[in-house]
Write a structure and sequence with these properties.
126 residues, mainly alpha, Helicase, Ruva Protein, domain 3, 5 helices, elongated
Amino acid sequence: MIRKCLTLFSFFILSTYAYNQMVYEFEDSMQEKRFYSLISEIRCPKCTSGSIASSDVPVSRDLKNKVYELILDGSTDTEIKKYVSERFGSFSNYRPALEGSNYFLWFGPFIFLALMLIIFFIKRRV
């Protein structure tokens, strides 16, 4: 009987740690909206396919905490994204900047579509 009670008690104690999540407290609702917007726009460095909002790996948790600290310190969204890009590279942003090597990324599909239309109309006339 005592053994069953200890087992049940240990499962109860261990289950509380399984659902332990960080609670972020903000000064106003605008900071909270900015936080959740930013963490959904920043790509997880470990997972590479999801945002840090959907990831719970240690590097993602650390990055969420850093974004939280920067928001409380009064940093702008641009400054926070710049910090993350400098630390983890431009790949960390889901919306890449319209500059440098990203021009092909932004305009490549339109160029490809234009070339396909040109080829289509040339073949059609022949």
